[in-house]
Amino acid sequence: MNKIYESDVEQMVIETLESQGYSYLTPEDQEVERPDLSEVVLKGRLKSAIDELNPNIPEHAREHAFRQVLAFPNQNLIENNEMFHRMLTEGVPVEYQKNGNTVGDSVQIVDFENPTKNNLVVTNQFTVHQNHVIKRPDVVILVNGLPLVVVELKNPTDENATTKKAFTQLGNYKTAIPSLFFYNGLLVASDGLDAKAGSLTAGWSRFMNWKTVDGVKEDGVTVPQIDTLIRGMLRPDIMLDLIKQFTVFEKNKKEDSKTGQIQIEIVKKIAAYHQYHAVNRAIESTKEAAKETGSRKAGVVWHTQGSGKSLSMVFYAGKVVLGLDNPTVVVITDRNDLDDQLFETFANCKQLLRQEPVQAESRSNLKELLKTSGGGIVFTTIQKFAPEDGASEHELLTSRKNIIVVADEAHRSQYGFGAKTRETENGIETRYGNAKYLRDALPNASFIGFTGTPIEGEDKSTPAVFGNYIDVYDISQAVEDGATVRIYYESRLAKVHLRDEEKEKLDAEVESITEGEESTAKEKAKAKWTQLEAIVGHKDR
Q1: Are 338 and 347 within 8 A, CB to CB?
Q2: If phi over 0 gives left and psi between -120 and 50 gives alpha, with beta otherwise, what is residue 133?
Q3: What digits encode the pLDDT tens for the residues 326-379?
Q4: What pTM did the predictor assign?
Q5: How far apart are CA 407 and CA 382, in angstroms?
Q6: Rounded to whole angstroms, how far apart are CA atoms 299 and 491?
Q7: How many C-beta atoms lie closer than 10 Å to residue 7's C-beta?
Q8: What does the pLDDT read at residue 371?
Q9: Among 138, 173, 165, residue whose Cα is nearest residue 13
Q10: Distance from C-alpha of 175 to C-alpha of 128, rounded to nearest angstrom
């Protein structure tokens, strides 16, 4: 048996990347293009790309943009990376004179719409000389001369050379040659078989496998994960889509326990494979649902608790505002605390959303926020759609078709269609479920649900409002991927003391949850509670 060397693994990775559309550049050739090894950008390729992508912008403005991409205000790695990411995804801001007026414009440095039209290069042994230190990352992917991906490899036949050690080596590079990582979009660590990818700030636990090439079928254990990752994640269109639409920089406040000073911590997050493919499927489903003759039911995404559901909703919102006709996205929860939590997540990702989300403070404020002709991300609770006392329906808020309603936790307790009657001082009053009130207020909106728990087979309201499942990522998948920890249950009988008024409250809750359901469904729900009461109920003797 022939011994496998690390150079053999490099060669395999390079050949697989070549099959994905990259051109190989030898170490000698790429060093000719950057004779100063302290520099990490292939300047000639970057300059050519800027000129080609921006023919209508004056040359001096293009030159100014070129210099901006190469200059950074300080040596803070993550701040510089965030600044470059903004230039990469939004364009480099420039000004120039046109017809006697100062014009603001953006210079594009990568063609995201036509990925294969970019200058796509893979090279190895990328020597960087900085701070009296020389380092050579194994494989680097450059797009238009910009080093967007760094891959560190270890020998699969060396039991001491693990994927985690490759990850550790990437950390060493970030310290020794930080300027290479100012431009970084993705990091990959591999032992030649196993492979994990992560962001610039991700710890080892957040480096994840990429388990599918087509987003439908997961590769089996007989397929090397490095092969799946290259073909499924590093394909130019997917890689650039991940960087542009599935990358966020979250800012969290941290207090120093000793000094009491507040510091802002920037955390860069990139979608895992299940988030990436689910969101893209959701976008396509939404486009179909929102067509002139569409059903308005985009479907349901079920991603188990702890697998990044809230962030998936952010990725979805960021992409849907670009994919449709400038829609207004209405995000609905059923509790104020959940509304606040989800709003904070979205607010922390406003760079990806390219706008500031807003929270509706009241029914009247919600109405004002929806008066626009398009655009905006509005947060509200489901209760704001309930009609005023005495009214049988909610007033029309807008008849626009470019409204996308995104519901967090899409369950029938929030969205029942059915009617029920109750006796009041003014006579018999008919009340409907919240789904009807939503439809009254937004009759032409399209609906999509995100949930962390499975929807019961008996639940007819959820499919009626949202449609069928778009994507499922259950607890077993999440545990296997390390996205969430395994849950252990200990069977224990708990005694529950319920006063009569508490039982009446529970009965009313069951009635509310099953509003509009057939009588058999109601009886089944009540039977479940009766059975539970018989098992755990307890009366003082």
Answers
A1: no
A2: beta
A3: 899 999 988 888 889 999 999 999 889 989 999 999 888 998 898 888 889 999
A4: 0.85
A5: 9
A6: 35
A7: 13
A8: 84
A9: 138
A10: 13
